[in-house]
Design goal:
Radius of gyration: 26 Å
CATH topology of the largest domain: Rossmann fold
CATH superfamily of the largest domain: HUPs
Number of strands: 15
Strand order of the largest sheet: 4-3-9-10
Strand content: 5-15%
Helix content: 40-55%
CATH architecture of the largest domain: 3-Layer(aba) Sandwich
Length: about 475
């Protein structure tokens, strides 16, 4: 397997010591609001990457944090007149609802920033001792330029970073690029005691300390959204190098942005959508499918049409799984076991090749729907079944869906509703035909076809059958 490493700017073979677990860390949410659809993409992409590594037989230790102390949390608490801890706790609970809805496997570790303050103080103390940091009015700042190769992760030279640094103007800092490790407490703010004065941690030191506390050494994969490369991940890396003269991670993996109707998502332009808002209308599974439909480093676009297409695609998947299940039930008394099937093995190999090449989920989804097409063609309108094919196809379908995190059991209730909807649409079409309203009848037929349902008009009436073609074929 090869992955694009943001640090080296090239694809690299994923090399793991034999028998060793894969240590993986993802930057999690700052818990002051519901997560938005941009947050959903790294959640789904890196959960699928973890699933694939597990499928390949690796033990994956996966940590994802909660930033539960931050200016945004404090501002919201002040606006609502409640304790800041209550804001963090409430939105962690809401996050779990969305994360489980999106199909994320529970992380091995879910550290909270406030639970790792001693580890942060330990790192800051050593950075001060080694002259990588300095104190200023009760705060502690990192000397960014003192770290060798600072800017390597973002791929920018120091002059470019300095010109575009998104840091608050502070005349007391030695340099514009220096960033805060420890913030002096303002009146009325929560604080922790330190030898430099009461305060709280800066954002970047939180993840560095949590990684150090959980893993104790260089991790294998550090992942997150493209927007985190600078300054967050750049500064995480700098702190760790200065702290122990080791790389923080061997592979840095970043996903691309999510746009809304081909425009950047922003509250100011009114195109900002939370996962909960979208899920209330379409369900969680179409959001996950959207997150995987393009290569993870490419941008993806959210729109109502995309969600509707994803619903149709998921219905087609669900129909195929039902067809496999129904066929297994018909031949339940027949002896059979999973045996090699050349046409299925070809698809399986293509699926794995797509994922091995920088985790190309878009290509893998294409193979999944090729599998659906093949299964439908083999099993629809036939009374002669190859039990070995059915068993093997069922296993491969289960593996593909597991890796991509497409749990269709969460789609089953909607499928049942869909069956009732299909029957009603067929009835309406018959009424339209009887009234010689062929334009309406054709419109209903096209609507059903978009749902993966084909109608066949026969002397014995209308026959409803699965469409072996369909949305993503």
């Amino acid at each position: 397997m090869v992955l694009y490493n943001t640090l080296t700017k090239r694809k690299e073979s994923l090399k793991i010591e034999t028998g060793a677990p894969i240590k993986m860390y993802q930057c999690g949410p700052t818990v002051y609001n519901f997560i938005h659809i941009g947050n959903a993409r790294p959640l789904c992409v890196f959960d699928s990457l973890r699933r694939y590594l597990m499928y390949l037989g690796h033990d994956v230790i996966f940590a994802k944090n909660f930033t539960d102390i931050d200016d945004k949390i404090l501002d919201k608490a002040n606006d609502l007149g409640v304790a800041w801890q209550a804001i963090a706790e409430d939105y962690i609970k809401e996050y779990y609802i969305d994360a489980r809805g999106l199909g994320e496997l529970p992380p091995t570790h879910e550290p909270r920033a406030t639970g790792h303050i001693p580890g942060m103080l330990k790192i800051v103390k050593k950075l001060l001792k080694n002259n990588f940091a300095y104190t200023c009015d009760g705060s502690v700042y990192m000397r960014a330029k003192k770290v060798p190769d600072y800017g390597r992760l973002s791929g920018k030279i120091l002059e470019d970073l300095q010109a575009g640094a998104r840091v608050a103007i502070n005349e007391n800092k030695e340099d514009e690029l220096d960033f805060v490790l420890w913030k002096a407490a303002k009146p009325g703010e929560p604080y922790w005691e330190s030898e430099w004065g009461n305060g709280r941690p800066g954002w970047h030191i939180e993840c560095t300390a949590m990684i150090d506390n959980i893993f104790g050494d260089t991790i294998d994969i550090h992942c997150g959204g493209q927007d985190l490369i600078f300054p967050h991940h750049e500064n995480e890396l700098a702190q760790y190098v200065a702290y122990c003269n080791k790389p923080l991670a061997r592979y840095w993996i970043h996903n691309g942005f999510v746009t809304v109707d081909s425009e950047k998502m922003a509250k100011s332009v009114g195109n900002f959508f939370t996962v909960r808002q979208v899920a209330d209308e379409f369900g969680y599974l179409p959001i996950r499918l959207m997150s995987l439909q393009a290569h993870y480093r490419s941008p993806i676009n959210y729109s109502i049409d995309v969600m509707k297409q994803n619903l149709s695609a998921l219905q087609r998947l669900s129909n195929c799984v039902c067809l496999l299940t129904d066929t297994r039930n018909k031949i339940a008394d027949t002896e059979g076991a999973e045996q090699p099937c050349e046409e299925l093995e070809t698809l399986k190999n293509k699926f794995l090749q797509e994922l091995d090449d920088d985790f190309n989920t878009a290509g893998a989804l294409g193979v999944l729907f090729d599998l659906v097409k093949q299964i439908n063609l083999r099993l629809t309108n036939t009374q002669s079944y190859d039990i070995n094919y059915v068993v093997a196809a069922t296993k491969i379908m289960q593996d593909f869906l597991f890796i991509l995190g497409l749990d269709l059991s969460n789609f089953s209730n909607q499928s049942a509703c869909e069956d009732e909807q299909v029957q009603e649409l067929v009835r309406q079409r018959e009424i339209a035909r009887a009234s010689l309203n062929f334009q309406e009848a054709d419109r209903i037929r096209d609507n059903l076809q978009n749902m993966g349902i084909c109608l066949e008009d026969t002397q014995d009436g209308v026959k409803i059958k699965r469409d072996p073609g369909g949305v993503l074929s």
